[in-house]
Amino acid sequence: MELEKVIRCPVHGYISVPPQVLADFVDHEIFQRLRWIEQTSMRPLYPSASHNRFVHSLGTYHLARRAFSAIISHTQLGAWGGVAPDDYAKPFEIAALMHDCAHAPFSHTFENLYKANGGAPTAYLLEQTAPLDPSFKDDYEALCAVELPPKVHEELSAAVFLDYFGAAYTNRHGSRETLALVARMITGCVHAVPVSPQQEIENCLIRLINGVIDVDKLDYIMRDSWTSGVNNVSIDHVRLLSSLRLARTSDGMLQPCFNKSALSTIQSVIDGRNYLNYWIHSHHTVVYYQELVTRAAQGALRSLSPPDDPSFLERSVFSRASFARPAVFSGRCLYLTSDADLLHLMKQCLDTVPEAEEYLSRRPTRVPLWKSRAEFALVFRDRGHNSLVTLFGIIPQLLGPCLSAAERANVWHLKVPARLEAIEPHEVFITIGDQVVQYSETMAGPSGKSGDEDFFFYVYIPRTAEAKRQACLDALRKARIGL
Question: 7: which strand partners?
């Protein structure tokens, strides 16, 4: 038996990977591409946050192995319903490893372009899974009806896994029957109405890869915090995962449960994620540079495409085809597109795409009217949700009297998603002695997720108009629209 490969990780210590997993998944050009896909969009704010989807995927795999080991150790035999626990080890671990295998360049900035260009249509994924799991389609549609649809990179990662890794998986790692289960785990597609012990167990494992407290979130919260150096909360992931088990609630449902000893750590996971979302991912610098790199890359792709087909490169780069064959144009070749490819294209267009020069030089040409949610709340303290939505839609008109036509043409107003998490009663369960209770029964923590009522945006004006900042603020504050 060959020894496992040991990889040094600054977050988890050492990560061990079996030789067959390396050969069939990690050492594949599609997975290796993740070395050049930025993990977060926070580097304009924290230059040290230089980590990628490759190390994050390995970290998630490591945590999944630790989680499954705890489940095997702590789950009572009767909870398995006659199912062999070891049958689920490989699909669970491989799904954790491959959950980001088709991630778009520059973190989440470009993933919607895959959707726009046919890269990850839901119909394609449902077509792939239909022969493997006839109930996948109905469950997927049920999931989308009650929750946010799976993210585009999750759909595409599931599709790419089935397309390019399915044969290796069935040859040496799992049965053909569990191929669709890996796709379910990557996309979070639970069985809407589980009708067997197998489906109940699968739902538990799906939630531990794509749920409220899952191995994906655990890794990126810790890794993003460590690499950036921010003073985020500390998460004792060893204590949390070592307390895992599967157990039945009072209504007979099988659920992944944490021991009461992990209560404080559960809240730390939620607090840690919200800290990153609220203070880092929603920071005015991060939001600005996400918009800037989007405009720079799309401008370069249009500029370098054939004059009679300006969307040629965008279609070629952001599509499923980019994983299968190179896109050749004007003597260039693009294949398995990464951050570096887009940066290379931007460099070719410094004279024709002003956003490209601005992004590469890191000399922003605009300044924000406010720099935080606190300032935003102060400026608009008398406005409700509907008023803010209306105001957001007419900002250029409202600033008309304050700015010249040229200045007004360079105003950006960007909505920022709230993305704050809280634990709903049905989402996380705790074991206390022989009882299984909802997390909400043990802690007086927040119980609802933030939604559209937390409407937040930034307005950036040209740096040349910085002296008019107060006039712009007054114009927005005093606008008579549904106060």
Answer: 15
Q: Residues 327-337: what's their mean pLDDT?
A: 84
Q: What is the pTM of this model?
A: 0.94
Please, are residues 477 and 408 in contact by the beta-carbon 8 Å criterion?
no
Q: Can you read off the two tokens belonging to residue 70?
A: 């705890």
Distance CA 77, CA 182 (A): 24
* Integer CA distances (angstroms), 34 to 19, 382, 435, 471, in order: 19, 46, 43, 46
| The token pair that represents 382 in the structure block | 């008398």
Structure tokens at 322: 């980019």
Number of residues that make up the chain: 483
CA distance 150 to 143: 9
- Residue 149, both tokens: 């649809």
Would you place residue 280 in the very low, low, confident or very high pLDDT band (cuts 50, 70, 90)? very high
What is the rounded CA–CA span in Å between residue 247 and residue 428? Answer: 12
Give dist(CA 192, CA 139) in Å, integer: 5
Structure tokens at 194: 């589980």
What is the side-by-side order of every strand in the sheet holding 435-438?
A: 245-248, 254-259, 429-432, 435-438
pLDDT tens-digit readout, 454-474: 799 999 999 999 999 999 999
